[in-house]
Automatic annotation (TrEMBL):
UniProt xrefs under CDD domains: RT_nLTR_like
InterPro entries documented for this protein: RT_dom (IPR000477)
Domain Reverse transcriptase: 59-321
Organism of this sequence: Acropora cervicornis
Listed PROSITE patterns: RT_POL (PS50878)
The name this protein goes by in its record: Transposon TX1 uncharacterized 149 kDa protein
Length: 630
């Protein structure tokens, strides 16, 4: 592991548990979730029990042993899919005592503070500020980028057999030590897994209690963050291996994407594939993990998409993966209809079930929000929904709402909150726009991630590949490049519709940032408050301020050099030098005076540092705008 905690961050996790930590953990826990004494009981009687419960935990810590009832759990099996007679198709969830879960929640809160410092952005599970949508974006963008640029890519979905249940406790303790967690936090984790036992509930009967020698209890707040730490060992070795090459992009070379145990490899050659699985083999021996070859799938993309061979002992394809990858069908072929039809089929079945019931309008609204549209938001956040699909979803929804009869209330009224006379049923197209804006918000956040470079690659107007800077430009729908993927058109369209509600808050201040500003459609570069737009300059790739400046000495390029570039790249051979001089002079005059002074007197000594920042107008009167990253 390349990253370890500083002493300050390590100390944050140390020490006895405090009553305040336990109360904070308890407040965030859901009610009515555990049999027996649920969180409701502890929340109500906390003023009486809080101090005593804190003492119990710290006594157990000092003596190295939890009370018997806190060491035991009941394993309940939840069916996933497939053949019910096969054990691997059932997920074990451990039911634990609430007093145990309060302690593990408090310790998980300590641990989550440190996870962003230890875990690469390729892993998104249970880490603040990261979501599973980041994984989907990376995978989809990687496939699209590889196919567009004919870049070699082998995309491999690696399935691990009972990943949480196979984690070696010894491997877990060594991982904590390697991360530089202090002895007291390590002692807390060892306490939770010392002499623990579980009983399995089968057909309503409980087995005898079985001592647990390995595995993390799914159902415990600590299981996910602890698993993420152990999985980071695998990711670190793949990242650092000199002979494993990821997708080749000028600014980003991703090799792996992880959401807990859902692991996807993005590799550039056969040697990388071989070496990656050697690392998996070593990881299996060290951690207790085991690859489930029957469920692993792989996709040839980019310059590999015509390959039909299988370099490993599982299925390879060059069309699309047969199974979903973290909830989405992906492939070289367009999987939009496959993703949407699957959801529409489920939607129709749910409606058919509930349509037979005599429900009030509010009851139907609850079904729509709780069982219908809620099942679509994950797909809506990650794939393009064509107009026909949006229309069909709304037709199905509102037909159910009015039981096939003539609507009595406008759909926009129904979308209003209850307090404003509506039923809180969102318009699907509006919700999609909100989800696209949320993607842009995450794109503009400060944390670096591979998917952001790839998404930025596709954000551009016609002949203007300006990446994230496109969001700072003044444009309309007609300017969006028709060749970019539909999802990215959706992003730019949603941003365009939101134009009057956001403003850029950080114009460039350093010369490096100034030189990377787009020259055209830029609200910072205007004549009579109108951004410039020189079509022939754009075709000649004179897009950025740096394109009209010297690279090693201060100052602007001579007009003759600019004219030569323009006439070489454009079919219009009638362009006069005088016209080029006029446009160059107009452009230089449009630049802010501060920029011009820096360009004429300085050379670039600093790297590009600008992180685009925007603020949203605040609906409250006389209130400050809200930073978009919030």
């Amino acid at each position: 592991m390349t990253l370890t905690l500083t002493q300050h961050d390590s100390d944050y996790c140390e020490g006895h548990i405090t009553e305040h930590e336990l109360q904070t953990a308890l407040r965030t826990m859901e009610n009515n979730k555990s049999p027996g004494l649920s969180t409701n009981f502890y929340k109500h009687f906390w003023p009486i029990l809080g101090h005593e419960l804190t003492s119990v935990y710290n006594y157990a810590f000092d003596h190295g042993q939890l009370p018997l009832t806190q060491k035991r759990g009941i394993i309940s099996l939840l069916f996933k899919k497939g053949d019910r007679t096969k054990l691997q198709n059932w997920r074990p969830i451990t039911l634990l005592k609430t007093d145990y879960k309060i302690l593990t929640k408090a310790l998980a809160n300590r641990l989550k503070h440190t996870l962003p410092l230890l875990v690469h952005t390729d892993q998104t599970a249970c880490i603040p500020g990261r979501t599973i949508n980041d994984n989907i974006r990376l995978i989809q963008e990687a496939i699209t980028y590889a196919n567009e640029t004919d870049t070699p890519l082998a995309l491999i979905s690696v399935d691990q057999l009972k990943a949480f249940g196979r984690v070696s406790h010894e491997f877990l303790y060594k991982t904590l030590q390697k991360c530089n967690f202090g002895p007291q936090f390590q002692r807390w984790i060892q306490l939770l897994y010392t002499d623990v036992a579980s009983s399995v509930k089968v057909n309503g009967w409980l087995t005898a209690f079985i001592p647990l020698q390995r595995g993390l209890r799914q159902g415990c707040a600590l299981s996910m963050p602890l698993y993420v730490l152990t999985a980071e060992i695998l990711a670190t070795h793949i990242h650092s291996h000199p002979n494993i090459t990821g997708l080749q992009h000028p600014d980003s070379q991703p090799t792996i994407s992880q959401y807990a145990d859902d692991t996807t490899l993005l590799l550039a050659d056969d040697i990388s594939i071989t070496n990656a699985f050697k690392i998996f083999q070593a990881y299996e021996e060290a951690s207790g993990a085991k690859i489930n070859l029957h469920k692993c799938k792989a996709l040839w993309c980019g310059s590999f998409r015509h390959r039909t061979d299988a370099p490993t002992d599982f299925d390879w394809t060059n069309t699309h993966l047969p199974d979903k990858l973290i909830g989405i069908y992906v492939g070289n072929t367009d999987c939009t209809d496959k993703n949407i039809e699957h959801k529409l089929h489920k939607l129709r079945n749910i409606i058919a079930t509930w349509k037979r019931r005599d429900l009030s309008l509010k009851g139907r609204a609850l079904v729509i929000n709780g069982l219908l549209t809620s099942t679509l938001w994950y797909q809506a956040a990650n794939i393009h929904f064509p107009t026909w699909a949006i229309q069909e979803i709304e037709d199905l929804t509102y037909d159910f709402m009015w039981n096939g009869k003539r609507p009595l209330i406008n759909r926009d009224i129904l979308a209003l909150p209850l307090a404003e006379g509506g039923l809180n049923i969102p318009r699907f197209a509006t919700k999609i726009q909100a989800l696209r804006l949320n993607t842009i918000r995450r794109l503009l956040s400060h944390e670096q991630a591979h998917w952001k470079y790839l998404t930025s690659h596709f954000l551009h107007l016609s002949h203007m590949p300006t990446g994230k800077h496109t969001l700072a430009l003044k444009f309309n729908v007609q300017h969006i490049d028709p060749s970019i993927p539909h999802f990215h058109k959706d992003l730019l369209t949603a941003w365009l519709h939101h134009t009057k509600h956001h403003t850029r808050t950080n114009p460039p201040a350093t010369l490096a940032d100034i030189l990377h500003e787009p020259q055209f459609k830029n609200p910072l570069i205007t004549v009579n408050d109108n951004p410039l737009y020189y079509r022939e300059w754009i075709k000649a790739d004179l897009l950025l301020v740096k394109d009209i400046c010297y690279s090693v000495i201060p100052g602007f390029l001579p007009d003759l050099v600019i004219h030569t570039i323009l006439t070489r790249h454009n079919e219009n051979t009638t362009r006069s030098l005088q016209w080029t001089k006029h446009e160059l002079h107009e452009l230089q005059q449009a630049l802010p005076n501060y920029w011009t002074r820096l360009i004429r007197t300085h050379i670039t000594t600093q790297p590009l540092s600008l992180q685009l920042l925007f603020a949203i107008s605040n609906p409250q009167p006389n209130a400050e705008p809200i930073p978009l990253e919030n």
